[in-house]
Amino acid sequence: MLQVEDIHASYGAGAVLFGVSLEVKKDEVVCLLGRNGVGKSTILKTIMNLVTPGSGHIRFKGEEITGKRTDKIAKRGLGYVPEDRDIFSTLTVLDNLKMAEVASKKPNREKALEYFPILRTLLDQEGESLSGGEQQMLAIARAVTAGSDLMMLDEPSEGLAPVIREDLKEVLTELAKEMPILLVEQNLQMTLDLANRIYIIVNGGVAFVGTPQEMEESKAVEKYLML
Ligand SMILES: Nc1ncnc2c1ncn2[C@@H]1O[C@H](COP(=O)(O)OP(=O)(O)OP(=O)(O)O)[C@@H](O)[C@H]1O
Ligand SMILES: [Mg+2]
């Protein structure tokens, strides 16, 4: 469903991605693991064309999206929840969801509220007054509301208490029944529980790809993720 082929990317003169290729198939949860600063977020940003790739190709639902406008890519159904969550902090939960509807061809607010029933009780509350976990739920709910066909999430569990993390894992398990997910995650257990396939990123390239079982059987974790 999403194919990334040999992308290179840089910030000004600083090269960050050196030929990354990866794939997310229908019904798959794919996780990107890697130490801080190796380029995981940049991979997602490049897919959304928030960072323009210097070379390489990105295809989504069979169509080349390389270099297309970010809003057009989103409208084609590629959902993206960035690391900083990026909700409108001065708007209410309801207005945040409405903004996602405006930008969408096939909005689905009801579906989002089915995943996150707690948001129904918070509809009139402003984004900035929500807890970290609630903000994360709102950020994902917005991408669901926008009618996404594939969801990219950048470290959704970051900063969440362990019990909220468990809730999030359940929501992502439910979401995965509905659409493929590309997940950047530092939490190893979460990754092992959710992923069908794992890519370990080292210095802007793919160092390992395999199933959670293959990752555990290899020495990949010790080799690429331990300090
Ligand atoms: N806007 C930017 N301008 C310049 N350099 C940047 C910018 N954003 C990221 N970088 C650099 O690019 C490299 C990769 O950053 P990126 O955010 O993709 O890493 P990451 O794997 O997501 O890290 P983390 O796990 O800490 O989120 C880092 O060296 C970072 O300092
Ligand atoms: Mg990051």
Describe the structure.
With 227 residues, the chain is an alpha/beta fold. The chain has nine helices and ten strands. The strands form two sheets. Strands 6-7-8-3-9-10 form a six-stranded mixed sheet, with helices on both faces. The protein has a four-stranded antiparallel sheet with strand order 2-1-4-5, with helices on one face. A hairpin with a 2-residue loop joins strand 9 (197-202) and strand 10 (205-210). Helix 3 (93-102) runs parallel beside helix 5 and helix 4 (109-115) packs antiparallel against helix 5 (132-145). The longest helix is centred in the C-terminal third of the chain and has 15 residues, at 162-176. The radius of gyration is 17 Å and the shape is globular. The mean pLDDT is 91.
Describe the structure in brief.
The protein is an alpha/beta fold. The chain has helices at 40-47, 70-75, 93-102, 109-115, 132-145, 162-176, 188-194, 212-217, 220-225; strands spanning 2-11, 14-24, 29-33, 55-60, 63-64, 78-81, 150-154, 181-184, 197-202, 205-210. Helix content is 35%, strand content 26%.
